[in-house]
């Protein structure tokens, strides 16, 4: 889409083409308003009607510098590029169209292929389906809804992380205390050595 968008940028206003879009004889495109703006700046003495040059004139294509000669209709005599206008419409529709929600595939039971896994067997420690609990190998096991197990494990994980962070803070505090104690011992040792040297002197 990015490369397409670059092709739909007007070289004058540097925005996406605003309809109507006109195609120049050199096959480059401009917004009609932008074409009129550069036409007027290139032909300041031509008579205007309602802000638009009302008679023929000439200007250079901003992309290739090819001279564009207009008839008595001015920029209104330039052919509209309906293809580009249609592409712009389709591009804008694509941009505003909500992206389809991604469907998450829920795993299914290996034994009962039409059943989605929705419970967790606490006895065996594995996820399974309701049919396995009712008729299958887990009918005598203790089970819990898969969602509740997920929430429990999520809470335990969050608590574990919080505990690790707390322990880390405590360890950092102990390290800081040890470093301070080492500095104090080093300072005391230096003072003691200086005092001993003075006694010997």
UniProtKB/TrEMBL annotation:
Keywords: Coiled coil, Cytoplasm, Metal-binding, Microtubule, Zinc, Zinc-finger. Coiled coil: none annotated. GO terms for cellular component: cytoplasm; microtubule. Its main location: cytoplasm. It holds the Pfam family zf-RING_UBOX. One of its GO terms (molecular function) is zinc ion binding. Gene3D superfamilies: Classic Zinc Finger (3.30.160.60), Zinc/RING finger domain, C3HC4 (zinc finger) (3.30.40.10). It is found in: Cytoplasm. Residues 10-65 form the RING-type domain. Residues 104-146 form the B box-type domain. PANTHER family: E3 UBIQUITIN-PROTEIN LIGASE TRIM. May bind and stabilize microtubules during myotubes formation. This is Tripartite motif-containing protein 54. It comes from Sinocyclocheilus grahami.
């Amino acid at each position: 889409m990015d490369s397409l968008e670059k092709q739909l940028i007007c070289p004058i206003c540097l925005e996406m083409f605003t309809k109507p879009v006109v195609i120049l004889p050199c096959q480059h495109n401009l917004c009609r308003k932008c074409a009129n703006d550069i036409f007027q700046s290139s032909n300041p003495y031509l008579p205007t009607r309602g802000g638009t040059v009302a008679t023929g004139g000439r200007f250079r294509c901003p992309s290739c510098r090819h001279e564009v000669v207009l008839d008595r209709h001015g920029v209104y005599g330039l052919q509209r590029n309906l293809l580009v206008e249609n592409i712009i419409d389709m591009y804008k529709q694509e941009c505003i169209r909500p992206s389809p929600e991604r469907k998450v595939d829920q795993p299914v039971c290996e034994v009962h292929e039409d059943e989605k896994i929705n419970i967790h067997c606490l006895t065996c420690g594995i996820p399974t389906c309701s049919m396995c609990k009712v008729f299958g190998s887990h009918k005598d096991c203790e089970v819990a809804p898969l969602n509740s197990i997920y929430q429990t494990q999520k809470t335990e994980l969050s608590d574990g992380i919080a505990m690790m962070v707390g322990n880390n803070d405590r360890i950092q505090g102990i390290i800081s205390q040890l470093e301070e104690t080492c500095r104090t011992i080093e300072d005391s040792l230096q003072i003691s050595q200086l005092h001993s040297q003075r006694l010997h002197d």
